[in-house]
């Protein structure tokens, strides 16, 4: 008889016997009727789930082991064993997560419950706790091309935002065909926002007609395509809010003719990381364009908090070339999902010497203008476009992806995928 001990993590295990053999013996005595309860994940999905548990509880499930396939009747189990941890194990089989204690296997949670508990609802679905959000997540990579068809193609979001500056329902719907990923949204944020208009931003948030078409199977190229300015979107968050890190603000060479909204000078003013100019951004590193479009210049903090992934890789949107965008956290070793999570850093540094004809650094300290930064390979974790190639929870085989970071460029200012 299979039973579930009351405390999953109060494990004191003693190695004895073959875990694979005992799993076969236990699982072979179970039965499951056809349906969602008998869900058999792909090997990649199972690997992602088990890796999440390993990372959270290394004292019980380490060192990470290769996933093993066990055929039982007409079903497939994916198993990892940890003999050095004292005979513990993890497995997925017939719609359930299993674990081993003292080399004895027990059924613990359904895969749906496991997805919510250990995978933050991203192994198979993404769920919002306010309003409704749906979506599925699995992806593939072949050569320089990433197939994203299984990742959030059916993501839909409808959330009433009671913030005084919004007081309306945020809607976003993603869909896919054989070649493209499409977004239809009203551009309203689905999280807490600051006060708009405010002293440094005179614009009110209003609903927009957001429509975008991105590559479903993005291809990494050897070229870099710059896309900056308020007329261009670097991408969109899942909630339909535009990602737009640059500003229209400029200064001329003298520094006496500056305009934060419709500048014509040569020196581009940064929205973040400087104190000489105020753009009225809120705690989400966002503000509002004259037409009422709320948009992000940096990490959308309240949205990341709403996604509730904690210190884990968090997919927040899609870049204009179709590759995914993650916020702040990534794996220490880009190619290893079992490596520790870290705060990922960009590779741009403030120049040691100001460029010729730049306005006075006494008036405008270095870091005020975009031109004050330069890419220094190896000084951080990312490339010129604030991206890198590596594994992610949604792409266990690896993919090129971008990051929203705490320092310049905050969000990618260029893309490496084919447009």
Layout of secondary structure:
Elements lengths: L18 H9 L15 H14 L11 E5 L2 E8 L5 E6 L2 E6 L2 E7 H8 L13 E3 L5 E3 L2 E3 L8 E6 L6 E9 L3 E6 L24 E6 L4 E7 L8 E3 L4 E2 L6 E2 L6 E2 L7 E2 L17 E3 L5 E3 L4 H7 L7 E5 L4 E4 L1 E3 L9 E3 L4 E3 L22 E3 L11 E4 L8 E6 L9 E4 L2
Keywords for this entry:
419 residues; mainly beta; eight-stranded mixed β-sheet; five-stranded antiparallel β-sheet; 4 helices; 9% helix; elongated; disordered N terminus
Explained architecture:
A hairpin with a 2-residue loop joins strand 3 (88-93) and strand 4 (96-101). This protein has helices at residues 19-27, 43-56, 111-118, 301-307; strands at residues 68-72, 75-82, 88-93, 96-101, 104-110, 132-134, 140-142, 145-147, 156-161, 168-176, 180-185, 210-215, 220-226, 235-237, 242-243, 250-251, 258-259, 267-268, 286-288, 294-296, 315-319, 324-327, 329-331, 341-343, 348-350, 373-375, 387-390, 399-404, 414-417. The chain is built from four helices and 29 strands. It is elongated and about 75 Å long. An eight-stranded mixed beta sheet has the order 19-20-15-14-21-22-28-27. Strands 1-2-3-4-5 form a five-stranded antiparallel beta sheet, with helices on both faces. The longest helix is centred in the N-terminal third of the chain and has 14 residues, at 43-56. The chain has 419 residues and is mainly β. Mean pLDDT is 84; it is low at 1-17, 33-37 and 125-134.
């Amino acid at each position: 008889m299979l039973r579930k001990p009351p405390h999953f993590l109060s494990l004191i295990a003693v190695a004895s016997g073959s875990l694979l053999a005992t799993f076969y013996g236990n699982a072979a005595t179970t039965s499951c009727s056809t349906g969602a309860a008998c869900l058999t994940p792909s090997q990649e999905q199972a690997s992602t789930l088990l890796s999440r548990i390993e990372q959270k509880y290394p004292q019980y499930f380490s060192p990470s082991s290769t996933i093993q396939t066990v055929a039982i009747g007409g079903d497939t189990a994916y198993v990892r064993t940890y003999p050095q941890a004292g005979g513990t194990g993890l497995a997925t089989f017939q719609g359930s997560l299993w674990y081993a204690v003292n080399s004895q296997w027990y059924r613990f949670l359904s895969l749906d419950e496991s997805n919510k508990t250990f995978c933050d609802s991203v192994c198979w679905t993404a769920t919002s706790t306010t309003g409704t959000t749906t979506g599925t997540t699995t992806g593939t990579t072949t050569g320089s091309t990433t197939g994203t068809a299984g990742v959030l193609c059916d993501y839909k979001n409808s959330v009433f935002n009671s913030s005084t500056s919004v007081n309306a329902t945020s809607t976003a719907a993603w869909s896919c065909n054989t070649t493209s990923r499409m977004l239809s949204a009203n551009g309203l944020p689905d999280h807490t926002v600051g006060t708009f208009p405010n002293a440094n931003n005179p614009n009110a948030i209003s609903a927009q007609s957001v429509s975008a078409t991105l590559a479903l199977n993005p291809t990494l190229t050897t070229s870099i395509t710059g896309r900056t300015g308020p007329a261009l979107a670097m991408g969109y968050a899942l909630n339909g809010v535009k990602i737009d890190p640059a500003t229209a603000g400029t200064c001329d060479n003298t520094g006496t003719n500056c305009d934060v909204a419709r500048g014509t000078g040569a020196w581009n003013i940064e929205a973040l990381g400087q104190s000489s100019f105020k753009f009225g951004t809120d705690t989400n590193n966002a503000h509002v364009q004259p037409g009422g479009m709320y948009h992000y210049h940096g990490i959308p903090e309240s949205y990341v908090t709403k996604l509730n992934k904690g210190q884990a890789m968090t997919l927040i949107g899609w870049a204009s070339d179709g590759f995914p965008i993650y916020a702040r956290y990534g794996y220490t070793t880009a190619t290893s999902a079992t490596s520790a999570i870290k705060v990922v850093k960009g590779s741009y540094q403030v120049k040691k010497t100001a460029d010729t004809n730049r306005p006075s650094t006494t008036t405008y300290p270095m870091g005020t203008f975009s031109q004050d930064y330069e890419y220094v390979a190896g000084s951080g974790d990312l490339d010129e476009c604030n991206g890198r190639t590596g594994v992610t929870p949604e792409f266990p085989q690896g993919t090129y992806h971008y990051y929203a970071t705490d320092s310049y460029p905050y969000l990618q200012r260029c893309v490496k995928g084919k447009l």
